[in-house]
Amino acid sequence: MKNKQVHAAVVTNQSIPIAISARHCHVNEEDFYYLFGREAALQSWKDLSQPGQFASQHVLTLKGPKGQIDKVRVLGPFRTATQIEISQTDAIKLGVTPSIRMSGDLEKSESITLIGPHRTLHKKQGLIIAQAHIHMDISDAIAFNVQDKEIVTVEICGDVRQLRLMNVVIRVSPAFVLEMHVDTDEANAAALQQYSIGKLIKME
Predict the structure, then answer these.
(1) Which of the 8 DSSP states describes residue 182?
(2) d(C-alpha 178, C-alpha 137), whole Å
(3) pTM (2 d.p.)
């Protein structure tokens, strides 16, 4: 019988800052003006960590078959397609079953109703649970020896717990700064506090 090759998991020394991504909504221009009215403007309320991204002054309500969630923040700038990102806990409250997907993968995704101050809009698709991912620029990708859209495992180093999160997507762009995004359920599972870090796991 041949011996199977065993790969050992090695935690790298490079630290990755972790940000907790709460439920939010990206919108295209058409949907924004439909929901908020033509007199509205997508203005920044607070800058986000990724360059050019911001939380806007606008919030809306998500309505599903079993419940609704109020005050969901709209992020900017505008996108080509409206995308709503929630956690599994949110999905249970709404009574919907969105799949875990990479951002931008909206084909045949879950439907949801958006309630704005001006009008209500039913989206036939656009609701997802965002797959955990790491933003990085090209120099970071070289340092970590990874490529865009590669799937990796990360050890999350919380103050109380340590959690290994699998199926984390690498996203590489010159416009990105190094940061891992997890949703609120993942953050709660790891008991994350502000300024937590993760470390990439490599198989040897």
Answers:
(1) E
(2) 7
(3) 0.90
